[in-house]
Recover the amino acids of this structure.
């Protein structure tokens, strides 16, 4: 254990000892700050605005993160050049190398670990060709191997098949490196209909050390999904560690495609943001479910991680990050007596927050287009999206919802 009480050891050693906290959602956090373009959601900010990326890493570390992931989400070459996007000018090698150097500079002095990251590719959606997908992946893996990252995180896959291919590529190209694999799926299945429990089992059989769910759904739906993976892996007589990195938003109304199907995605999700006390409950339920690698994804800010760290302080050897609220105990210093009266856990644990929007709906109607890999509308290319493609999407939506009202 470090001098400040922070857990130490290799990644797998830390998992054996207790909970290990990852960080939160970089693309959404940096888009809000003006450093990431919504739509492509690619990480060229590591080349164009490195200080912004460093600062976000610092904030997650200060909030209690044990593992910081290099900002390489969607940094495969095919994604950097997809649909007329200009991020490819930095090169897949340049972006991934810069991301690794930034996170190592910030994380290692604080005793944290560094993860390289892979995610789903346009090549899978367009070709479903295993070798082509692996070729794309290995362009990124070259950098992670050179940078000697502590672990790899394969995240944000809607299809377990592609995640399996990515895990296999890491085992082939970076043997000995711990591999985490998480899917952006719900409690029932991936987008191709493979049951959620079976998805977890397939990832373990592919060689993943840690399996779970990330993004697309709120913490409690994600925990429910991981529980199915745990049951399925246990029934098969296999062993693994488990992870969860959910959204920072409530999504009880989201369908199989998760929050990207909601009409508020991506620019009007703020009314759905979860409180730090929601996150404390999430942390406790995740730990009690047997999940050891705990963090967040889109909408998940440093103060959310701080709440998780505070809730699991005893399980982490008593370590507490800076300026924890201690369930509002700090409010005892407030000047107003009615605010001082909120300086206790009971108040915040039982609060039912209001949105302040007199006529807002509690739930939305998801788009539910129902298309997935192999559909012409999902085929990707380097040229800009054409008017004809936009028109084809509009016609599809009209025909799909004819007579039922359009959820757009």
């Amino acid at each position: 254990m470090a001098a400040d009480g922070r857990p130490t050891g290799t990644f797998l050693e830390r998992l054996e000892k207790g909970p290990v906290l990852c960080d939160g959602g970089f693309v959404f956090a940096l888009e809000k700050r003006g450093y990431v373009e919504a739509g492509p959601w690619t990480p060229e900010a590591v080349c164009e605005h490195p200080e912004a990326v460093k600062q976000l890493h610092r904030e997650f570390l200060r909030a209690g993160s044990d593992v910081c992931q290099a900002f390489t989400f969607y940094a495969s070459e095919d994604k950097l050049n997809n649909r007329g996007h200009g991020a490819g000018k930095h090169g897949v090698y340049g972006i991934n190398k810069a991301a690794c150097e930034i996170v190592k500079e910030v994380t290692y002095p604080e005793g944290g670990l560094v993860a390289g990251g892979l995610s789903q590719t346009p090549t899978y959606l367009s070709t479903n060709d295993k070798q082509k997908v692996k070729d794309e992946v290995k362009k990124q893996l070259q950098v992670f191997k050179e940078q000697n990252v502590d672990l790899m995180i394969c995240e944000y896959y809607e299809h377990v098949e592609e995640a399996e291919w990515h895990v296999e590529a890491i085992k082939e190209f970076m043997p000995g490196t711990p591999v985490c694999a998480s899917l952006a799926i719900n409690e029932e299945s991936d987008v191709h209909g493979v049951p959620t429990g079976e998805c977890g089992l397939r990832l373990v059989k592919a060689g993943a050390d840690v399996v779970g769910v990330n993004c697309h759904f709120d913490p409690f739906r994600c925990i429910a999904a991981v529980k199915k993976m745990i049951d399925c892996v246990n029934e098969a007589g296999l062993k693994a560690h488990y992870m969860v990195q959910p959204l920072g938003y409530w999504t009880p109304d989201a369908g199989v495609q998760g929050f990207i199907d909601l009409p508020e995605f991506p620019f009007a999700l703020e009314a759905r943001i979860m409180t730090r006390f929601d996150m404390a409950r999430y942390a406790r339920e995740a730990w009690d479910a047997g999940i050891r690698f705990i963090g967040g994804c889109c909408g998940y800010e440093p103060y959310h991680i701080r709440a998780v760290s505070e809730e699991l302080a005893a399980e982490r050897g008593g370590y507490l990050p800076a300026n924890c609220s201690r369930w509002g105990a700090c409010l005892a210093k407030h000047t107003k007596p009615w605010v001082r009266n909120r300086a206790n856990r009971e108040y915040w644990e039982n609060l039912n927050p209001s949105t302040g929007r007199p006529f807002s709906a509690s739930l939305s109607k998801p788009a539910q287009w129902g298309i997935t890999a192999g559909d012409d509308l999902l085929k990707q290319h380097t040229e800009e999206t054409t008017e004809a493609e936009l028109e084809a999407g509009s016609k599809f939506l009209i025909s799909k919802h004819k007579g039922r009202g359009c959820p757009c």
Notes: The radius of gyration is 21 Å. The chain has 16 helices and eight strands.
